[in-house]
Specification:
The structure holds 2 protein chains of 2 kinds.
Chain A lengths: L2 E15 L5 H9 L3 E15 L3 E5 L6 H9 L6 E6 L8 H5 L2 E5 L11 H11 L4 H15 L14 H13 L5 E5 L7 H18 L2 E5 L3 H7 L2 E6 L2 E7 H8 L2 E8 L11 E4 L5 E7 L5 H11 L2 E7 L3 H13 L1
Helix pairs in contact in A: 5-6, 6-7
Chain B lengths: L10 H21 L1 H28 L13 H15 L3 H11 L2 H5 L5 H31 L6 H27 L8 H14 L11 H8 L2 H14 L3 H34 L4
The chains are: A alpha/beta, B mainly alpha.
Chain lengths: 328, 276
Amino acid sequence: MNPAITVQELRKTYRFPKGRRGFLASLAGLVSPDYVELEAVGGVSFEIAAGERVAIIGPNGAGKSTTLKMLCGVLEPTAGAASVLGFTPWRQRQALAYEIGVVFGQRSQLWTELPVRDSFALLRQVYDQPQAAFAERLSSLVDRFGVGELMDQPVNRLSLGQRMRCEIVASLLHGPSLLFLDEPTIGLDVTAKAAIRDFIREQSLNEGQTVVLTSHDTRDIELVCERVIVIDAGRIVIDEPTGELRRRFIARKLVTLRSQAPTLDLDLPGVTRRPAEPHTTVLEIDTKATRVDGVIAAALALGGIEDVTIEDPPMEEVIHEIFAAIRR
Amino acid sequence: MRSSPPSGANLLGTTRAALAAYRVGLASSLAAWPVLLGRAIFYGVCLTVLTAFWDKVGAARLAGTLATRLPPGGLGVYIGVTEWITLSVTPIQLRLEDDIRSGALEPHLLRPKPYLAQTIATEAGNMTARLGMIALGALLILTVSGRVWPSPLALAFVGVLGVIGGFIGILLYCLVGLSAFWLRKVLPPLLIMQKLMFLLGGLFAPISLYPPALRALAEASPFAAHLGFAGLQIIAPSASAFCFALALQAFWILALSGLIALAWRAGLKRTLQGVV
């Protein structure tokens, strides 16, 4: 499959004037300022295939937003090369804009005083969309994202979840083949988050859109993306499929047992008991030390087991484990 | 799903998008009509206070000054025109400052149409709504006050120069707003700009009353093109002065647009390099 994004040794170093103490020193600083340099991205390289859904994650200040900005074309790199849908983003920003959709979770691209419908109509002009094609696409997106009843409401009267659905529709109105999502579920409640994730995944699967997402919410990564790139201190430390990441970093399973007895007396090597309600036992199993089927067999042998659930640890723990491993 | 081939990287597409932005600005101001009404009432209050003062000054007709040339109550209607323009110009500098300093500029840069043209068009739409509402207020006040109505020709001249003057005001404040690329706050250049408008624009007194040297300086500045020329037409309408003013306004629109383009280009470079 053709790559939608190719990045080679991309670097970004910020340069700030250094503050000086004292009046005379400050004046001297105006004439010949000293600069501090901060390396935000220290040479990242990767490819993203067309239609792939990729999460770029990392601790605060890791360089993921800087990378995303360079790929969108709103930040020039210090060195390196990138091709996004065949464009060099920072040189062909306006041409690239026709081909990409961008959602910034904390910034609105809609006109807050206007009804949603008017914002969409203005975006048609901004993206030079023919009326008929635009109307067809709008109708399809309005149905898919369930924003029909919001169309005549001013944007500033929408809830955050409603606004975010409208933001995503706005970013798709010109039919982009690549979607950049920066914290698309930030501040949303659980239901709204789930809806947004479903919309994004379905949209990508139905239309074959490439999705590049940054988020601190591990469920966004887990439920939307098939591949994770972890950046730390401006460098890629991990780049692999989401499932593989989980398997590699956490050789653990969580087994939850519902029992007639308030507690179960299970003491096995490689098994740790987690706090739980009475009649529920949550066991964390180190799969390198013991097998899951052995633990379940031991539990069933005790009798009175009503229900058994086997889960992978939450993605949050995987990420925590990765960041901890990076720091070690 | 693919976008249609980009056809908007041309002047026509940009103009269409700017017109759409203008309509959005107009519509959003009209939708907030209570704010417009409040502004018109504020205009009425300002005018009541200022004309009470200026009518007395005008009536004194200070001997040996050019004030003797003014028609009765002329200063009052002059102020009515300059305040009409001043209160109609929207604070584009605040929007630019906010977008530039907060990073909110980035989503706008991800669109295929120039941010600044879209912003200026939106603000021009806002200003049009304000000009219309305050003009209605001004005509109502003129009727209620029992003053002599200016001639239709004077009103037509004022209308044209006032609208263009308002647009020059947007360009001036736009320049102030773009200083946010280099300054943390745009307040200092804004205060300087406002003082110059007061002095060289003839905000409170016609520049025709100024001593010759100061008058020449004022006329050569963009501030008179913004305020003073429209005001003068209400007290001394003249086709030749109207044409002269129109030519100067055209010059200043071109000159300020050029300066804005230069400032934007330099500021955008800083933003794209991550310096701002």
